[in-house]
Design a protein that fits this description.
By secondary structure, this protein is of the alpha+beta class. The protein has two domains: 134 residues, Alpha-D-Glucose-1,6-Bisphosphate, Chain A, domain 4 (2-Layer Sandwich), CATH 3.30.530; 105 residues, no CATH class. The protein has eight helices and ten strands. Helix 4 packs parallel to helix 7.
Amino acid sequence: MTTRTLLHRRLHFRDAAEPQDVQAGLERAIGAVFVPIEGRPSARAAQARVGTLRFRVELSLDAVLEGANVYRLAFDVSAEGEAADDAALRRHAENWIGLWTGRLAIDAPPPSGAGSVSGRQALVARWADDDAQLADAAATQQAIVSALRAGAAFSTAHKEGGTTIRFDGRAYVRADYGESSEVTRFETDAQLLAFLRRFFHHEVSFHAPPGGVSEAHAWQLILRRLERHRRGPAPGAAALGHFSRLGRLGTGARLAAVFGSVVLVFAVIAGVSWWQHTRQRAAAPPAPGLARVPPPPTLRGPGETACCRP
């Protein structure tokens, strides 16, 4: 089948997260796995399909600066089939790129030679270690199981409702809400994993390039869909990537909520005290020699009753 180039897009962004965490977030957003590029240890590439559009997406770590890392994303987009409305296809491709990158902190490229060379080498080495863990589907499955037992969950939503999958301390529970209220329990890891592979088949295959997705990549994309990692890192769950960052953000949010609750309690107590004080003053008799001031008269127009307008 013939293909033709539609556009090239290059952008830089800053993120304090390490490369494997950034990769995890992009894989979740795009629905495609980034794989190492031979001879380029600081870069990974993914292939994604959207209809007749073909995306090659390259992620690279360009510099390690104080407080943030600088990454580069390169999009090369082509279209399959006979020539059509290429302007419309380009707009369509730009919309997808905008959807995938909308939360990134886009920035200018770093100056040539900027950043720590040793820091970059250390991050690249940890990135390679993460690749090795994800290469084995069985190890990724174990990471999913361990993360669920540590408090993570799967959550999907659609216009009719959605589904949550979590561990309740005794079994894995799939609970639907909305149009369906079905609840299914899985007593063993094997039962859960077989269900997850069927349940997420469409999601992990939707943007797969021609030839489909391998089992290792399918489980890697399922891993990326984990959410709400609440109890800290789980044994064997190092590949969770950005979910550990979400856990730290969750801790800050919980502290803010506690502080807000304390402020609210004090506000309520103060309000009740003021109300009681006001009632006591209103009920007290006037001081000797002072007459109570009457309330202002109610002004009514022609045809109005004492309580309301007709």
